[in-house]
Amino acid sequence: MKHRRIAFALVVPALVATACGSGGSTSSSSSSAALAANQQFRFPLVDDVKTLDPGHAYDAVSIVFIQNVFGGLYRFDDKLKEIPDIATGLPAISSDGLTYTFHMRQNVKFSNGDPVTSADVLYSWNRAARLNDSYGIVFAPVAGYSAVAPTSGAPTATTLSGLSAPDQFTVVAKLSQPAGYWLTELALWTAAVVDQKVIPNDTDKTWWTNAATAIGTGPFKLTAYVPKDHLSFANVPNWWGGSTGHLTDIEATVLADQGSQVTKYLAGGFDTIGTADQYPPLSAVRNFQANPALSSQFVNIPGGRTTWVGFNFTTGPFAPAAGNLNDPIAKAGRLAFSESIDRTQLVNVACGPGGITCKPATGGNISKGLQGYLGDNTDPTVVFNATKAKTDLQTWDPAGTKRVGLVYWFNTSTSNTAIAGNLQSQWQTNLGVHVDTQSTDFPTFLTARQDKKYILFRDSWGADYDNPQDWFDNIWRCSQAAVGLGNNDGICDPKVDAAINKAETETGSQAITDYQTAQKQLISDVAYASLEYGANQYFIKPYVQGGGGNALYDNSWTSISILAH
Asked: Is the separation of the CB atoms in 557 and 544 below 8 Å?
């Protein structure tokens, strides 16, 4: 599961007026190639969909379907650019940054033919806030949010006081404080518009399971859902947005056994494997790479997850003396444990030869392929240098007492176990330090890590959306450094917070630049030892054009076509 509850703030990237086309296309065939008569797209799922309700969704499986069935005022295209959807363009924003006025297209309809008006937007947004599920906090900047979705106690309102509709096609949102970042949140699935005529009440969680009531404004609609078996979709005839592309039918089959998925794919029963973050098994990837007839069908693109070694800044031998982040002794210790890691070796061992499922993290902690990435080989703390690492080790621990009894903690999984084993080996070989490794179940690990009980530990983040705010507000702010919160290292650097605060008053490239300043400061602090960036893997048949995805999402079904084969 990649996605999780988001933080309060978000910086908006520049909106573009029209879509930029299909991102991550994996076919080299010309767009003029003959199309197959049958435009059905078939793929397997390990896990069944949890919900198609935008107000409740949080997992990658659900989101991939919601993004094709539902729409909002804005959406992300296949290149992660935010573009208008139901909105006619950018909102008008008052000079004080508190009032947003959105103008809607007047021809938008739900897939059942119901017209979409501003009343539907208000209903959908108020409903998402009331549900107060994983992503309801999208509407936290709007005035009245705390009354509808209080952090404690019962709600005192059912609608956001800051929302209004002056006419059928205008929505006005008044914020509780300036938030130039909020616009990007409106492209997330939580802000999608739902048809209030088909939803009985807020407590109903089954309306989306019925093709007659799973109604959205997107280019596709649900036609059948059999739990734990399959989901079927079809394009919407005479869709208000124009062309729905070439696909006419989508068939998603729940098939938990990945070996069986690959067998069926090879037999022609699936057109792709890897949708919704459910990647093909590593063993099959290796087989495909070794087979000249299949190697071109494996597609590997940057993914929006980064994994790093965390250091405890609140207690233990890596913590700076008296909270002084410039303490050269503690910093030398953290550097030693980072410089002694050969990332190329690590990914070859843990992620397959050449780094199949991950790549060395050399450009900061924000993953390659996302805004805020610093660039290849820009993080000096991850340069492998065993000689310097040993020198830094002696600076940190001349008596040899701090290195005794160190344990690297991680949550149990095949990949995490492989990484931990390689780290242990490299620290022993390159640094001369034995570090024990210890795994535990994820809930126990998460609680202990947030409580700052570990000295050395696995940490990671999978982006919810393409903006650095998603990283900084959740895991590197001083406000998140206390026990029980998401800044697992417990680091608090006022310079980092200052850069974040500045970024959150800005938009576009300037905001990204200031987030990069904050990230460079964390590197200067040796706040972590970045290890690897995740990668998204797909098997895609040669006749599938426009398949695959970007660092966060699968490509839209409107971008995909089936060539004659």
From this structure: no
CB 250 within 8 A of CB 557: yes
What pLDDT, in 10s, does the model give residues 2-29?
A: 333 443 333 334 454 333 333 344 443 4
Q: For the CA atoms of 473, 474, 478, 482, what is the dihedral angle to 10 degrees?
A: 160
pLDDT tens for each residue of 143-177: 999 999 998 999 999 999 999 999 999 999 999 98
Q: Strands of 291-382 (E only): list them.
A: 298-311, 358-360
- Whole-number Å distance between alpha carbons of 543 and 537: 18
Strands (E), 163-297: 163-167, 170-174, 220-226, 230-235, 249-254, 272-273
What is the chain's length? 565
458-478 pLDDT per residue, tens? 999 988 888 888 898 888 999
| Identity of residue 359 | K
Show the tokens assigned to 533: 């960036």
- Dist CA 142 CA 556 (whole Å): 30
Tens of pLDDT along 118-146?
999 999 999 999 999 978 989 999 999 99
Distance, in Å, from the CA atom of 355 to the CA atom of 465, rounded to the nearest integer, reads 24
CA–CA dist 317, 435 (Å, integer): 14
The residues, ordered by sequence, that sit 6+ positions from 347 with a Cβ below 8 Å of its Cβ are: 355, 358, 359, 360, 532
d(CA 271, CA 546): 12
pLDDT at 505 over 80: no
Q: Quote the crossing angle between the two packed helices 414-426 and 343-350, to the nearest 10°.
A: 140
Q: Where are the alpha helices (DSSP H) in 132-179?
A: 145-148
Q: What angle do CA 303, 304, 306 make, to 5 degrees?
A: 100
Residue type (1 letter), 318? F
**Nearest in space to 218 (alpha carbons), one of 562, 557, 551:** 557
Task: Tell me the two tokens of residue 388.
Answer: 């310097």
